């Protein structure tokens, strides 16, 4: 697999809530939330928010979407994460589940012109 020239995930994108630190697990691709004990640093669990699997024949720089913010809320025991292209995910900390709640509008497929008969 080719080596990426892309910089690593931004540092300092984290949130400490009720003694647990939430940040992005360093897997080189992004998309994985890590919960760890804020005092000891021991990893408690991880959750994949979105798939960033690199295609074997794809360019190394074409993958990887890192978190740009992690915030508490909007509800109790939830956090909201945004990645670098603007997709937002709400994470239920008790259920350890995530759902996409926002992001760029999907692009319409290109129009195919009618071919002459």
Question: What keyword list fits this structure?
Answer:
about 120 residues; mainly beta; four-stranded antiparallel beta sheet; elongated
Characterization of this structure:
By secondary structure, this protein is mostly beta strands. It has a domain at 14-54 and 63-102: Thrombin, subunit H, CATH 2.40.10.480. Helix content is 0%, strand content 38%. The protein has strands at 14-17, 20-24, 32-37, 43-48, 67-72, 78-83, 88-92, 97-102. The chain has a 4-stranded antiparallel beta sheet, with no helix packed on it. It is elongated.
Summary?
The chain is mainly β and 117 residues long.
Mean pLDDT: 82
Q: What's the number of extended β-strand segments? A: 8
Number of helices: 0
Strand content: 35-45%
Sheet with the most strands: spatial strand order: 1-2-3-4
CATH topology grouping of the domain at 14-54 and 63-102: Thrombin, subunit H
Helix and strand arrangement:
Layout: E1 14-17, E2 20-24, E3 32-37, E4 43-48, E5 67-72, E6 78-83, E7 88-92, E8 97-102
Antiparallel strand pairs: 1-2, 2-3, 3-4, 5-6, 6-7, 7-8
């Amino acid at each position: 697999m080719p080596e990426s020239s892309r910089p690593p995930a931004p540092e300092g994108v984290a949130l400490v809530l009720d003694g647990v630190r939430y940040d992005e697990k360093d897997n080189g691709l992004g998309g994985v939330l890590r919960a760890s004990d804020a005092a000891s640093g021991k990893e408690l669990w991880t959750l994949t928010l979105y798939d960033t699997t690199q295609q074997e024949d794809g360019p190394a720089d074409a993958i990887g979407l890192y978190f740009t913010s992690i915030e508490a809320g909007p509800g109790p025991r939830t956090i909201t994460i945004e990645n670098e292209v603007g997709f937002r995910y709400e994470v239920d900390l008790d259920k350890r589940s995530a759902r996409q709640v926002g992001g760029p509008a999907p692009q319409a497929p290109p129009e195919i012109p009618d071919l002459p008969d």
